[in-house]
């Protein structure tokens, strides 16, 4: 589409043209392709529809982001300036909601050198986008002028991904304070690697709106700087509900002071790689006066008991990776479950098998459990559309607990199981339905033996789900819907032919 700056509104024929407000309501229900087609019909409709096509902008000021895309510098800069002039026009600028300044994928870090003229024009135009709510900056040099512009912004979401070499070029002895204008969600260096760690003494963050922040996400390269900024903030993070950080810094001196600043934190996510770069931190004790509002723990199983002590956590996600190699043995998992507390209502775990002693541990130590997920988080990393097939309705749940009339039995509302099916039959076929029903009838004692191959490794993963519907009054028995969920990718289509 040709970017034409048309600042003068065309005259409408009132006899055949609807009011602009009605057109905006109609276009709000249309797809992007439909809006693009409508904007090409006439000047009047272009005036109304065209700005809606540019609500989300992706700007790539990186000339050498890939080896196959190397346009001439003068042509490249001229084209970027023309595009930015169009986006900065009053008619378009007020409709822009999101801007992402990122490299071309795939990238080589040494090639991520943004063109300074293009970046300067982007920052100078930011105050013109009066309705901007989201800003993503990757590998951008933050000069004093640009930091001033960031200080004056008011955003819902702000994502900052920086590297030591990309920003500073040469080491500096002067610490740089970067303002964070996010009001709801802030993400910092979530994609950074451990070999490019920033020095906290040379780079620091300043939260402009700490009282309104709801979520904070940070990767391995940014967690230490994030915790320092949170602990030094003059205002507490009263609205913060979700904190997503690297697990390697929970034993740092800044962790406890930062948690004191988050009195209402409800969800704590501790990131850990599949192949740890170093051993996990050893925890001895977590002060009882922090994280009292914590409801959800998502992180390494070995650290769950420390956070469960003196806290009524209701949701435990005891996994850090979707890789099947990250699951635990039952003997490793059982002592952890004994220390989680009786307040647990939701449990997600990865385990190689479900022997009777592990089932007894779950039923005895978690009497209020309502939702159980076993290996449902595992994935084959195959992109595609998630499809759900209903196998049967009004299915009774399996008996999970002690055998016979004596002993505790779990009264679950939701149960999900990760399984790997043979690739010889399409998922959702009668053969797979038969396997699911057979597995369901023999769960949990035959969970590991129903699969034709060892399920701990394999290319295709699915999720069997049972959700409670209602109780049958005649038999006083819980009934639910049994279904299977899988990702329909290219390989699945090929198997259907």
UniProtKB/TrEMBL annotation:
InterPro entries xref list: F-box-like_dom_sf (IPR036047), LRR_dom_sf (IPR032675)
CDD domains, per database record: F-box_SF (cd09917)
Transmembrane segments: none
SUPFAM superfamilies tied to this protein: F-box domain (SSF81383), RNI-like (SSF52047)
Record-given protein name: F-box domain-containing protein
Lineage of the organism: Eukaryota, Fungi, Dikarya, Basidiomycota, Agaricomycotina
């Amino acid at each position: 589409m040709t970017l034409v700056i048309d600042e003068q509104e065309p005259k409408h024929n009132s006899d055949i043209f609807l009011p602009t407000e009605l057109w905006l309501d109609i276009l709000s229900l249309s797809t992007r392709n439909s809006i693009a087609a409508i904007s090409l019909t006439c000047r009047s409709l272009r005036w109304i529809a065209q700005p809606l096509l540019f609500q989300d902008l992706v700007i790539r000021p990186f000339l050498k982001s890939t080896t196959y895309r190397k346009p001439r510098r003068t042509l490249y800069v001229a084209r970027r300036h023309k595009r930015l002039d169009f986006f900065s026009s009053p008619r378009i600028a007020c409709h822009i909601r999101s801007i992402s300044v990122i490299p071309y994928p795939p990238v080589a870090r040494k090639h991520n050198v943004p063109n300074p003229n293009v970046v300067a024009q982007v920052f100078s135009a930011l105050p013109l986008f009066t309705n901007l709510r989201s800003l993503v900056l990757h590998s951008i040099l933050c000069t004093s002028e640009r930091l001033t512009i960031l200080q004056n912004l008011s955003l819902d979401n702000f994502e900052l991904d920086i590297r030591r070499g990309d920003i500073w070029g040469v080491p500096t002895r002067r610490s740089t304070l970067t303002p964070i204008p996010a009001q709801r969600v802030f993400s910092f260096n979530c994609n950074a690697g451990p070999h490019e760690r920033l020095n906290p003494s040379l780079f620091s963050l300043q939260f402009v709106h700490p009282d309104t922040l709801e979520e904070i996400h940070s990767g391995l390269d940014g967690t230490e700087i994030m915790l320092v900024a949170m602990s030094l903030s003059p205002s507490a993070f009263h609205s913060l509900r979700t904190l997503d950080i690297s697990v390697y810094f929970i034993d740092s001196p800044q962790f406890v002071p930062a948690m004191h600043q988050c009195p209402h934190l409800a969800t704590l996510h501790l990131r850990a790689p599949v192949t740890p770069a170093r051993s996990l931190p050893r925890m001895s004790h977590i002060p009882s006066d922090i994280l009292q509002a914590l409801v959800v723990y998502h992180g390494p199983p070995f650290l769950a008991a420390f956070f469960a002590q003196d806290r009524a956590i209701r949701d435990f996600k005891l996994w850090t990776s979707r890789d099947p190699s990250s699951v635990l043995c039952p003997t490793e998992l059982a002592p952890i479950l004994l220390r989680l507390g009786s307040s647990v209502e939701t449990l997600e775990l990865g385990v190689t098998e479900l022997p009777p002693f592990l089932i007894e541990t779950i039923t005895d130590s978690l009497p209020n459990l309502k939702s159980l997920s076993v290996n449902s988080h595992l994935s084959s990393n195959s992109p595609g559309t998630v499809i759900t097939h209903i196998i049967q309705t009004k299915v009774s749940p399996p008996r999970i607990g002690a055998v016979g009339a004596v002993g505790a039995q779990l009264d679950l509302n939701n149960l999900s199981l990760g399984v790997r099916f043979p690739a010889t039959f399409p998922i959702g076929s009668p053969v797979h339905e038969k396997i699911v029903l057979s597995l369901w009838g023999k769960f949990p004692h035959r969970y590991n033996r129903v699969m034709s191959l060892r399920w701990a490794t394999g290319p295709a993963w699915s999720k069997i789900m049972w959700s409670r519907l209602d109780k049958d009054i005649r038999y006083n028995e819980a009934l639910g819907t049994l279904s299977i969920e899988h990702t329909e990718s290219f390989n699945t289509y090929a198997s259907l032919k």
